[in-house]
């Protein structure tokens, strides 16, 4: 599948021309169902881990969190190839493993908010992330504008933000930098959500044998964007609450 247009680097031209029919609607419903199940799985893993202080300490207080973070990046990089070229079992394993890894990484944040008596902020962040995601995904699905022109900018912005997040976590450790970075992440990943939705829509072909795999790939991409939105909105709320 041409490395899925170079790992999102080039959206399929003429995405708005894909026929909107029952097959496409069923395909997109499958994408969102997979994604919703992954979000639910991540939430379950996060809350179970967050209920075990010793496990939270092991993740947050040791290099294990960086191992999990590196594993997430690795899975994200290799996912398109595995989903389209490997077995369906491998594709599903990678997808659900990705959801579990995110659950482990998010758990210390949830634990911290609960210990501060600010569990309500978790629900606020989820609602805000769901609202932003829903609006931008709807835009990406319905717009006639070809969003492929956004590809290069979004890819470079993602790399820049990743570098900034790692540097701030390891070197600068600035709360203000974390706030600003999270704000930019929310804006960039809102745009990525629209871009990905249009791309996923364009991957559908009537009666195509690859539609099942494209649905898994689409859920993988949108799930990652949703969780990223949630994490950084939660970070913003946490920083604003502490001031």
Mean pLDDT over all positions? 92
Strand segment count: 0
Distance between the termini: 48 Å
Main pleated-sheet profile:
none
Helicity range: over 70%
Order of helices and strands: HHHHHHHHH
Rg (CA only): 18 Å
* Beta-strand residue percentage: under 5%
Structural commentary:
The protein is mainly α and 243 residues long. Helix content is 83%, strand content 0%. The N and C termini lie far apart (48 Å). 36% of the residues are buried.
Ordered list of secondary-structure elements with their pairings:
Blueprint: H1 2-8, H2 22-50, H3 53-60, H4 64-85, H5 88-115, H6 119-142, H7 151-172, H8 175-203, H9 211-242
Give keywords.
243 residues, mainly alpha, 9 helices, 0% strand, disordered N terminus
């Amino acid at each position: 599948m041409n490395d899925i247009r170079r790992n999102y680097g080039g959206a399929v031209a003429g995405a708005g021309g894909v026929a909107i029919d029952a097959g496409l609607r069923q395909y997109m419903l499958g994408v969102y169902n997979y994604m919703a199940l992954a979000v639910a799985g991540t939430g379950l893993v996060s809350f179970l881990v967050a209920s075990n202080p010793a496990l939270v300490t092991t993740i947050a207080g040791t290099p294990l969190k960086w191992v999990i973070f590196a594993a997430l990046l690795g899975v994200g990089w290799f996912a398109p190839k595995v989903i389209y070229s490997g077995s369906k079992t491998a594709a599903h394993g990678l997808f659900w493993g990705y959801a579990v890894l995110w659950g482990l990484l998010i758990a210390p944040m949830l634990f911290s908010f609960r210990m501060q008596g600010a569990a309500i902020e978790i629900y606020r962040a989820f609602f805000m992330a769901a609202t932003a995601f829903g609006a931008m995904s709807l835009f990406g699905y319905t717009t006639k504008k070809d969003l492929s022109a956004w590809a290069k900018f979004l890819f470079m912005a993602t790399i820049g933000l990743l570098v900034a997040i790692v540097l701030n976590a390891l070197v600068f450790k600035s709360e203000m930098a974390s706030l600003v970075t999270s704000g930019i992440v929310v804006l960039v990943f809102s745009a990525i959500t629209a871009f990905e939705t249009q791309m996923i829509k364009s991957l559908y072909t009537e009666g195509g044998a690859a539609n099942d795999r494209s649905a898994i790939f689409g859920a993988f991409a949108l799930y990652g964007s949703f969780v990223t939105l949630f994490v950084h909105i939660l970070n913003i709320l946490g920083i604003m609450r502490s001031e």
